[in-house]
Amino acid sequence: MKRLKIQAAVFAGALLCCFLWASAFPGIKIGYRLWGIQGSDTWRIIRFAGVRFFLAGFLVILFASIARRKLLLPKANEMPKIMLLSAFQTIGQYVFFYLGLAHTGGVNSAVVDSLTTFFAIIIAALVMHMEKLTPGKILGCLLGFSGVLIINLSSQGFSFSPLGDGLVALSALCYGVSSNLIKLYSQQHDTVIFSGYQFVFGGVVMTVIGHGGLCLSGESVAVNPDDATKAVLMLVYLALVSSVAYTLWGLLLKKNDVSKISVFGFMTPVLGVVLSALLLGEGGQLGVRHIVSLLLIAAGITVVNLKQSSVK
Questions:
Q1: 44: helix, coil or strand?
Q2: What beta strand segments (E) does 119-269 contain?
Q3: Is the CB of residue 215 less than 8 Å from the CB of residue 79?
Q4: Average pLDDT for residues 154-173, to the nearest whole number?
Q5: What pTM does this model have?
Q6: How would you write 226-292 as a 3-class SS string?
Q7: pLDDT by residue (tens digit) across 45-79?
Q8: Which of 64, 116, 200, 245 could bond 20 through an S-S bridge, CB–CB 3.0 to 4.6 Å?
Q9: Burial state string for 253-274 with b = 16 or more CB within 10 A and e = fewer than 16
């Protein structure tokens, strides 16, 4: 009974992370509208993301410091690891994703980005040797990936663009590496400190990159005074999404195999489609394929976790 309760808590935590990340899909779209950012404004988008992640890191450190009644600071020998983690988890993942997104369609990016789970599990098994690559894990990934394909593929089909989809694939690879780095570092270091300060470092770098690009292009962004309060509140919400979800995800990775947690990542794009439909007034687009997609992903999650339980 105790084991079942622990498993239920892990599942609930992973699903909460996926729900929070999924809510960022419509949240980012709303945020762009409030801040006057167009989908093709790559530098503005990177700067927006940089401010968001800096704020996320600040909130993680602030809340954790208040809870522990002391200012949380990383040790000197931890900073290189934090910077390496940030290079993959925040800077690499999001810069590659946004640059790639500017040169590919939403369907392609969603499908290619779902490779994050494959990369995370393969790196954990074949590169870092932290767990075994079993037929069950492979089958679970294939089921989950099938669910993502079903919900994203349209009559236009799928084609691969090196500059667009290639960069999105690099973003997925960065996520796979960062998931394993979190697992590795969490065994000897404070997960909350690493999560907070990697966001701060990554946020500063992305803000500088985005602002530098804007200065070179001579562009500026103007916010409608009537939307200023809403714009700030949405930015704070997106920062909270990142701070809560990534910190919780790191804690889950610390106590569980990478494959057991990462396979839940297939839920994010599906929940993102559903939440976008509901929050952006596109509910009429939901249909049978969304149900089939969820069932396939749920089957994939079940297969991976059942196989792991039987092995243990």
A1: helix
A2: none
A3: no
A4: 72
A5: 0.79
A6: HHHHHHHHHHHHHHHHHHHHHHHHHHHHHHCCHHHHHHHHHHHHHHHHHHHHHHCCCHHHCCHHHHH
A7: 899 999 999 999 999 999 999 989 999 999 999 99
A8: 245
A9: beebbbbbbbbbbbbbbbbbbb
- Residue 111 has a pLDDT of 61
Extract the runs of DSSP E, i.e. beta strands, from the chain. none
Residue with tokens 């790639």, as numbered in its chain: 100
Task: Give the Cα separation of 173 and 179 in Å (integer).
Answer: 10
SS3 content of the chain, % helix, strand, coil (to 5): 80, 0, 20
Measured CA to CA, the distance from residue 20 to residue 14 in angstroms comes to 10
In the chain, the amino acid numbered 137 is: K
Round to whole Å and give the CA distance between 261 and 242.
17
Per domain, the residue ranges of the chain are: 2-132+156-257
User: 187: which 2 tokens?
Assistant: 């065994």
**For the CA atoms of the chain, what is the radius of gyration?**
19
Residue-level pLDDT at 42: 82
- List all residues 6 or more positions away from 139 whose beta carbon is below 8 Å from its beta carbon: 300, 303
- Under a CB-based contact definition with an 8 Å cutoff, are residues 147 and 266 in contact? yes
pLDDT by residue (tens digit) across 109-123?
Answer: 566 666 777 788 888
DSSP calls for 92-112:
IHHHHHHHHHTTS-HHHHHHH
What one-letter code names the amino acid at 32? Y
Please answer whether residues 303 and 139 qualify as being in contact, where contact means their C-beta atoms are separated by less than 8 angstroms: yes
189 phi, psi to nearest 5 deg: -130, 165
Residue 264 — φ and ψ, nearest 5°?
Answer: -65, -20
Share of the chain above pLDDT 70, in %: 81
Residues making up the chain, counted from first to last: 312
